[in-house]
Automatic annotation (TrEMBL):
Membrane topology summary: Multi-pass membrane protein
Compartments where located: Membrane
Protein name: ALA-interacting subunit
Xref: InterPro entries: CDC50/LEM3_fam
GO cellular component, one term: Golgi apparatus
Signal sequence bounds: 1-26
Chief location category: membrane
Lineage: Eukaryota, Viridiplantae, Streptophyta, Embryophyta, Tracheophyta
Organism whose genome encodes this protein: Spirodela intermedia (Intermediate duckweed)
Keyword Ribosomal protein: no
Pfam families according to UniProt: CDC50
TM region positions: 37-61, 298-320
């Protein structure tokens, strides 16, 4: 008997108890709940009792959020250029400054979050999402590594930092706010994720050979500030999953009273006209649940209401036409003794 045969026998002897154990033979004690009418009714009732209050609380929290949404991509185009908006945005000799007034509908408690919203902008496009180099963003020694950044990888034969389509298309509209002729400062610190600032964008990585903020492309970057402190870029580089999205622009840290008038000066530079996109300025407060979104509350209410309805229906059926559990008279051969 050779060594291989001996090893095989020992292996079989070791595995034999395992193969014939109660676990592998599925002989362990088991409990299978019987779904009696009482259990089903109770389950639906418990779900409705839990979900309905959560839905009401979520909906009330969403309704407490005060939000101002203003679409300006069309409104900020001069009437003489209304028929050719693309030529307007691409002409560097035309002023892009637009001043509008907004009225506060209800008291807005600080902090008031300032967002820009883009519609019909597909940041989730496969080529767009991949057009970046994360090593270059966080490590100064990788500044020459522009792999994956095509077509925005080099300028005049020199590597672009940060490279790629995402950085190149950085949003470059700006907003200034005044109330009663007093400047309303917007705090742009802390608008990005701390984990992104600490781990994804290097403290020793500085912009190089980046675009100059012309009509082609997006915003320009300050070459003397490291990427970890360029929070507008960090916010923009976290790509959105849907074609309509909001990104945080800054925070207003004073309260605004009802019926106050806010004067907004918009620098309308970002070209969304070429692909039929929309631009909106959003001012919003926040609740314990976040921003204004009725979906979560409505979802809880619908599920809770449906469970309550089913619990009521099953209760009525059980009371009107009760049925004894395990009654053999309901078996087909007992109901049709002749086999028909």
């Amino acid at each position: 008997m050779n060594s291989g045969t001996v090893a095989g026998l020992w292996l079989r002897l070791l595995l034999l108890p395992l193969l014939h154990s109660r676990f592998t033979q599925q002989e362990l004690p088991a409990c299978k709940p019987i779904l009696t009418p009482q259990w089903v009714i109770s389950a639906f009732a418990v779900v409705s009792i839990i979900f309905v209050p959560i839905g009401v609380a979520s909906l009330l929290a969403s309704r407490d959020v005060v939000e101002i949404v203003y679409r300006y991509d069309s409104d900020c185009v001069p009437a003489s250029w209304a028929s050719d908006k693309l030529a307007y945005i691409q002409n560097p000799n035309i002023s892009k400054t637009c001043t509008r007034t907004l009225t506060v509908p209800k008291r807005m408690k600080s902090p008031i979050y300032v967002y820009y919203q883009l519609d019909n902008f597909y940041q989730n496009h496969r080529r767009y999402v991949k057009s970046r180099n994360d090593w270059q963003l966080r490590d100064a020694s990788k500044a020459n590594d522009t792999s994956g950044c095509d077509p925005e990888d080099a300028a005049g034969g020199n590597p672009i930092v940060p490279c790629g389509l995402i950085a190149w298309s950085l949003f470059n509209d700006t907003y200034r706010f005044t109330v009663s002729n007093s400047n309303l400062p917007v705090n742009k610190k802390g608008i990005s994720w701390k984990s992104d600032r600490d781990h994804k964008f290097g403290k020793d990585v500085y912009p190089r050979n980046f675009q100059n903020g012309t009509v082609i492309g997006g915003a320009k970057l300050n070459s003397s500030i490291p990427l970890s402190e360029q929070e507008d870029l960090i916010v923009w580089m976290r790509t959105a999953a849907l074609p309509t999205f909001r990104k945080l622009y800054g925070k207003i840290e004073v309260d605004l009273q009802a019926n106050q008038t806010i004067t907004v000066t918009i620098e309308n530079y970002y070209n969304t006209y070429e692909f039929g996109g929309k631009k909106k300025l959003v001012l919003s407060t926040a609740s314990w649940l976040g921003g204004k979104n009725d979906f979560l509350g409505l979802a809880y209410l619908i599920v809770g209401g449906l469970c309550f309805f089913l619990a009521a229906v099953f209760t009525i059926i059980y009371l009107v036409k009760p049925r004894k559990l395990g009654d053999p008279t309901y078996l087909s051969w007992n109901r049709n003794p002749g086999g028909h």
